[in-house]
Structures are given as structure tokens and as C-alpha cells.
Amino acid sequence: MTAVFEKFIKNPAIREFLIQKIGEEGLELVEILFKSKKYVSEFVLAEHTGIYVNTVRSLLYKLYENKIVSYTRKREKSRGWYIYSWMLHPEKLLDLLINKRKSMIKEIKLKLEAPAGEQKFYCKKCDVKLPFSSAMEYNFLCPSCYKPMTVFSEKTINRQNKKLITKLEKEIEELSEIKELLKTEEKKPKRSKK
Ligand SMILES: [Zn+2]
Questions:
Q1: 113, 176 in Cβ contact below 8 A?
Q2: 118 or 192: which carries more pLDDT confidence?
Q3: For 110-122, how does the pLDDT look when each residue is reduced to its tens digit (9 = 90+)?
Q4: Residue 168 and residue 165: Cα distance in Å, rounded?
Q5: Both 77 and 33 in a single domain?
Q6: Distances from the Cα of 115 to the Cα of 118, 119, 155, angstroms
């Protein structure tokens, strides 16, 4: 399981998502939940990480928004408050990231297929883009820096978009690989206690 976890947590897409959601400190919670594969009380999590119970709960709630964790809660009879226990669903996170990339690829491909449209003029320095008719009014000089503008090439954009698709496809491949690893891990018979 440790090897799978290493792959999981070191994957740039997964790491980026988790840090954005719950920060570096939250990664420790993910590690404990990933390895335990069952519901863990927030008090146990707090004790093992040194993170306040309330913070544990608010961090994990952020993952709950995407169904990456689930919880059960029990009422503490003597004090009347609820104690939450959390479980991680790493496959849900993988699906989320894979689907996000798939829809990005779809969107980019639509753009690639769209007709090039009217010729445009471009100033790289100022990032100003004008249609032919407006550029002519300015004598094809950038309205902001007065330097000559260049013909804006759809080819450059297409090249950049194709590169992005390749990058996204590679990320999907890596994420799918981790998903497979998780599945095989689950199928392994659990060691029986003697
Ligand atoms: Zn300019």
C-alpha cells in the first residue's frame, strides 16, 4: 500500500488539487485515511497529525464537496455533540481529475475544428489583437506601442493547443495507471490474523 500511496501523493495533478483544497498540512490527513481504508475518527486524526479537531473537520469537509471523502457521525451521549469519522475514496479523486481533463480536451478540440475566421493582427508585446478592419485604421501599428503589428497566426495557437492536449492525455494516462493500481490493491486478499 505504501508504494501505491507514494505514486498517488507524488502525482503532480493529485498533489496540486489536494494542496489547493486543503493545503500542505492536510496531506497528512490524506495519508492516514488512504492507508487505513476505513472510517477514522476525527479525534484519532487530530491526535496523529497535531491538527485541531475543528480544523480536521473543516479541511475534510472541503474534500467532501467533491465526494472524495465520506463521513459518519455519532452523537456523544454525555456531551451531546457529534463526533465525525472520515473515509477517503481515492478512486473518486482520480475520476474527478480524469474527467476534468477529458472535458478540457473536448473543449480544445472544438476550438481546433472551428474555422479560422477573419485575419487578425497582433502585437506580442502588448498582447493586443485586432481584426483586419481595425488594424487598417491604425495603419497596422499597435495602438498602444505604435510598433508594427504582425499577422496573427491560427497555426501558432493550434500548435499550442495540440501540445496542451498531449500533456493532458499524458496526465490522464498516469492517473488511470494509479487507478488500476488501486483496484489491484483492493483485490488482494487481506492478510488473516493468526
Ligand atoms: Zn504594442
A1: no
A2: 118
A3: 877 766 666 789 8
A4: 5
A5: yes
A6: 9, 11, 12
CA–centroid distance, residue 52 to ligand 1 (Å): 53
Residue 83 has pLDDT above 90, yes or no: yes
Same domain, 74 and 139: no
Residue 121 CA to ligand 1 center (angstroms) comes to 11
Ligand 1 centre to CA of 143 (Å) is: 7
Is residue 82 domain-shared with residue 45, that is, in the same domain?
Answer: yes
What the block records as the C-alpha cell of 29 is 490527513
Is 192 a residue whose pLDDT tops 80?
A: no
**pTM of the shown model:** 0.78
Q: Is 149 exposed, middle or buried (0-12, 13-18, 19+ CB in 10 A)?
A: buried
For residue 78, the domain's CATH number is: 1.10.10.10
d(CA 29, CA 117) in angstroms, rounded, equals: 51
State the distance from the centre of ligand 1 to the C-alpha of 158, rounded, in angstroms: 23
Distance in Å, CA 17 to ligand 1 centroid: 36
Residues with CB under 5 A from ligand 1 (ion): 123, 125-126, 142, 144-145
| Between 78 and 90, the higher pLDDT residue | 90
Give per-residue pLDDT as tens, 123-181: 989 989 898 889 999 999 999 999 999 987 777 778 888 999 999 999 999 999 999 99
Q: Which domain holds residue 6?
A: 2-88
Q: Is the same domain home to 68 and 112? A: no
Is there a domain that residue 194 lies in?
A: no
